[in-house]
Specification:
Layout: E1 3-11, H1 15-22, H2 25-28, E2 43-48, E3 59-66, E4 69-81, E5 85-95, E6 102-110, E7 115-123, H3 130-155
Antiparallel strand pairs: 1-7, 2-3, 3-4, 4-5, 5-6, 6-7
Protein name: SRPBCC family protein
């Protein structure tokens, strides 16, 4: 993959609780399932196999419509190492607008109080419309990793 982005935040949770929270693809992709400016008002729906996206080899799919176009991407869990790390990557050629194939994941580093969470994406521009990648992929990657990290941070903010 040619391009990368990473977001780091501090989270008020121990590593096991944070991993359990992030291990659910529905939570990580919540920002894709809600209407927003970055989603151009569209939404995506998540479906998963029997592994629920929580085991190596488990596959889950996001599909929906954005700007009237059908989008579809399947991801497979590549690494599942509770309570520290998880990675997943696209299976086949995704039908997305501004990024193509990608590998994503998160790292959790325990601290004296809470954890440091790093969410990353390594991606290519879409094969069908590379000019859209050139224009928007960097901003989209930053938004996506930031939303995942900040959503996790907010989920444990009330524990303080």
């Amino acid at each position: 993959m040619r391009f990368r982005h990473r977001t780091e935040v501090l989270v008020n949770a121990d590593a096991a609780r944070l991993f359990e929270h992030l291990d659910d693809p529905r939570r990580l992709s919540a920002h894709m399932q809600k209407r927003s400016a970055m989603m151009a008002g569209g939404t995506m729906t998540l479906t998963a196999d029997a592994g629920g996206g929580r085991a190596v080899g488990s596959v889950y799919r996001l599909h929906g419509r954005v700007l009237g176009l059908a989008l579809d991407v399947s991801s497979q869990v590549e690494e599942h190492a509770p309570p520290r790390r998880k990675t997943w990557l696209t299976v086949g050629e995704p039908r997305l607008l501004v990024i193509g194939r990608y590998r994503m994941g998160f790292n959790i580093t325990p601290l004296v109080r809470g954890c440091r969470l790093g969410v990353f994406i390594e991606y290519a521009w879409p094969e069908r419309h590379p000019w859209l990648g050139r224009l928007f992929a960097s901003a989209y990657a930053a938004w996506c990793t930031r939303r995942m990290a900040q959503d996790a941070q907010r989920a444990f903010a009330e524990d303080r």
